Amino acid sequence: MTQYVCFSIVLGTAFLCSKTEVRKVNGKKLNEIKKVLMSEKGYIRIGSHTKERLRVRGYTKGDIVSCIMKGRLCEVQYGYNHTIGQNVFSYVVEGKDSSHNPIVVVLSEEGQSQFLVVTVMPPTDRNRFFDCIG
């Protein structure tokens, strides 16, 4: 049986787990992001650089919402967030935009129920994404 490395955000530790457990963890985090999107508890913000990239790539805020609501969490990354000055988890969500075209949204976790949209892009890497363009 294949084992995967999982990270406990609460405990700050790594442990081996199954593919089913990875899906559960990813599903819980995506549900948390959806709850933030649909409620007034927390925020999902878009920085000025990301807004400009959205415009250049032809995406809208509605495309981000569509991707989050109908997509799947396909990667969890850990890296430096320049805005808050610390290492945090980032979540790569693969889904469809409001025109049903493939789209990827990357969100960085800034705190409890607080997220920053890092980038929005078309999926082009067939090794990372299920539904690619081109």
The domain tally reads 1
From the 3D structure, determine the CATH topology: YaeB-like fold
Per DSSP, what share of the residues sits in E-state strands of 2 or more residues? 35-45%
User: Which residues form runs of ≥5 with pLDDT under 50?
Assistant: 8-13
Q: Based on the coordinates given, report the CATH architecture.
A: 2-Layer Sandwich
Helix content: 25-40%
Task: Name the structural class.
Answer: alpha+beta
Question: Distance between termini?
Answer: 34 Å
Name the overall outline.
globular
List the secondary-structure elements in sequence, H or E. Answer: EEHEHHEEEE
Strand order of the largest sheet: 3-7-6-5-4
Arithmetic mean pLDDT = 85
CATH class: Alpha Beta
Cα radius of gyration in angstroms:
15 Å
- The strand count comes to 7
How is the biggest beta sheet arranged? Answer: 5 strands, mixed
InterPro entries: DUF4258
Keywords: Plasmid
Organism: Halobacillus litoralis
Protein name: DUF4258 domain-containing protein
Would you kindly provide a brief summary of this structure?
Helix content is 30%, strand content 40%. It is α+β, with helices and mostly antiparallel strands and 134 residues long.
Architecture blueprint of SSEs:
Layout: E1 4-8, E2 13-17, H1 19-38, E3 43-46, H2 48-57, H3 61-70, E4 72-81, E5 86-96, E6 102-111, E7 114-121
Parallel strand pairs: 3-7
Antiparallel strand pairs: 1-2, 4-5, 5-6, 6-7
